Amino acid sequence: MELLAKQKSLETRAVIYSKAFPFAIDSAKGATVRDVDGNLFIDWLSGICVLNLGHNNPIIAEAVRSQLDQVWHALEIPSEVRIRFLEKMHSVLPGTLNGHAKTLLTVTGADACETAVSLAKHITGNGTIVAFGGSYHGINQGIVSATSSRHYLETSGAIRYGVFHLPFPYSYRFPFPVEKRADEGKIILRYFEHLLTDDHSGLDKPAGIIVEPIQGEGGYILPPDDFLPGLREIATRFQIPLIIDEVQTGFGRTGKFWGCELTETSPDIMCVSKSVGAGFPLSLIAYREEYDESLPDGFHIGTYRGNPIAMAAGAASIDYIEKENLLRRVNVLGRKAKSEFQRISESSKYVGDVRGVGFMIGNEIVESRETKAPAKDRASQLRRSMFENGLLMHTCGHFGNVLRFMSPLIISESLLEKGLRIYGDAVRVLT
Ligand code: PMP
Fold first, then answer.
1. What percent of the chain has a predicted confidence (pLDDT) above 70?
2. Residue 182 has what pLDDT?
3. What is the rounded radius of gyration, in angstroms, for the C-alpha atoms of the chain?
4. Which end of the chain is more exposed for a tag (fewer CB within 10 A), N or C?
5. pLDDT digit string (tens) for 153-199?
């Protein structure tokens, strides 16, 4: 409490996480965090999908320690670690990017998305970006235009650039009547085709399409299987670069290395951040190599891009995921967790929907199953009661009413079960 009070006197009042989780951290290990009073918490936050390999992972720590003896900051000048990281990164790129890509290093998720949009505009010479309702791509002055939240648009004070938001196939709250779920994606794609082919539709020629394979901040929304491939097909036919934002879905989170691999969809430009640095700030875009030909020197720059310590952690992370067969683990434990979330939801009138894949599972909290009215206060109440019982679980979603499971991928089965018990107990007593 003392540290919280000090933070309050020194830092902006606009912080969010320390209000959602009012404690001070002493240390962390694996999927657990210890506070300064000695209490141990199970961590289902992973620093918002940054710590897929857990806190203080010894393999990452070793890679970082040995890099500390070499070089810490080197601009874009090549070093052994930079090349090692880039080679490993290129070896895991999805689909048609693999073996045919260039990379450009950035620092944050927003920075990567911002660069991706600039690249698409540069390649096509067009100005408008197509994004989706519920999307989150960061809140810097440029990219905030593609992020869908009115709150962030208003607080950033940015002058919005041309973005056309299509609806995302958010099944639980799809605005149009459909016979079956699979139709939702089709309707949106048909509408998109109409926008592109009718000169009076109101859509300018797009510079690019930016999409998350599973919406993260928007509420852990998994689109129907044919949605991303359909978008890919339209992007190819109309020669619009498809930007896939893997900032939250990458590095094994979904049970595939990349979220777009769930449906074998290849990006033209891909945004990578969060877990790529295993806790050290690092991000990048990977894009079709032919896009590189016309880029002027210094196309998009920044002093801190490609930090060597973060790249050492990144190279070790890729090794770790491959050697430990982590994707298999995420698939097996993710299925187990989802069926338990589903079981818990059946006995509660307040859990309206359980969705997602791998370690990316959303539980949408509502006032009642019939009205589906979003229950943000109940979701916050749940978060607080889990916190008091030693589990860190955060919210997201259009209405802040989705509790998301995003634990480190290395969590032990027994801690996962313990966390599920705490979640289940909290849901059971929810009034
Ligand atoms: N894209 C996605 C999909 C994200 O989830 C986020 C962050 N939650 C961002 C971009 C922005 O990343 P950052 O906060 O590092 O700017």
1. 100
2. 84
3. 21
4. C
5. 899 999 888 999 999 999 999 999 999 988 999 999 999 999 999 99
pTM attached to this predicted model: 0.98
pLDDT at 228 over 90: yes
Calculated CA dihedral for residues 196, 197, 203, 207, nearest 10 degrees: 40
For residue 332, the model assigns a pLDDT of 98
> What spacing in Å lies between the alpha carbon of 248 and ligand 1's midpoint?
7
Which sequence spans correspond to the domains of the chain? 2-56+326-428, 70-323
Would you state the pLDDT for residue 159?
Answer: 86
The CATH number of the structural domain formed by 2-56+326-428 is 3.90.1150.10
Q: Is 400 left (phi over 0), alpha (psi -120 to 50) or beta?
A: left
Per-residue pLDDT for 1 more than 90? Answer: no
**Residues 47, 392: contact at Cβ < 8 Å?**
no
Cα 405 to averaged position of ligand 1 atoms, centre (Å):
17
Q: Are 285 and 276 in contact (CB under 8 A)?
A: no
* CATH fold group of domain 70-323: Aspartate Aminotransferase; domain 2 (3.40.640)
The atom number, within ligand 1, closest to the CA of 246 reads: 3
Other Cβ atoms less than 10 A from the Cβ of 229: the count is: 15
Residues with CB under 6 A from ligand 1: 48, 108-110, 113, 136-138, 212, 216-217, 245, 247-248, 273
